[in-house]
Amino acid sequence: QTCALPISDYRDSRMLQYPETVSIVIVKDEDGRYNPMSASWVMLTSIEPRMIAISIGFERYTYELMRKQTEFVISFPSAGMAAEVKLFGSESGRDMDKLKHLGTPTQPATKIDGLLLSEATVNYECVLKDTLITGDHMIFSGEIVASHKHVDDLPRLYVLEPKKYGGL
Length: 168
Description:
By secondary structure, this protein is an alpha+beta fold. The chain has helices spanning about 10-15, 60-70, 80-90, 100; strands at about 20, 25-30, 35-40, 40-45, 50-55, 70-75, 105-110, 115, 120-135, 135-150, 160. The protein has 4 helices and 11 strands; from the N terminus they run αβββββαβααβββββ. The strands form 3 sheets. The protein has a 7-stranded antiparallel beta sheet. The chain is globular and about 50 Å long.
């Protein structure tokens, strides 16, 4: 007796992975504006040194910015940040200042030139260490140089279905 049924289309199997973690990567553009992008493909990769990696598609504005910068922030949004996750994942920073558009509360990072999302559950300040091409995406790995958690221990937001928050 078999316990697995074949699925002919990857997208059908991908739908079974939800709920899924969501994060927000924030990187500065050449004009000094901070651009947030929602992303699901993020993972911790090392304890010592503390490392995290995020996978970003080549067609994304954030990919262009990450290729030019050496510092970035990865935030894990709280349950109250659904509007931010949706906008940050569905609009391009080429076309708008996403943080200003929603009036998202931020605060300066402490160790890098970056912004923390004030209402996020966790913010990691990162220094870029390496990249790896994986098909149509680039994995950016960074060393976590500072960690911040919300004072109220806010619950994290998870993506329950792919189209709900901008088609992550």
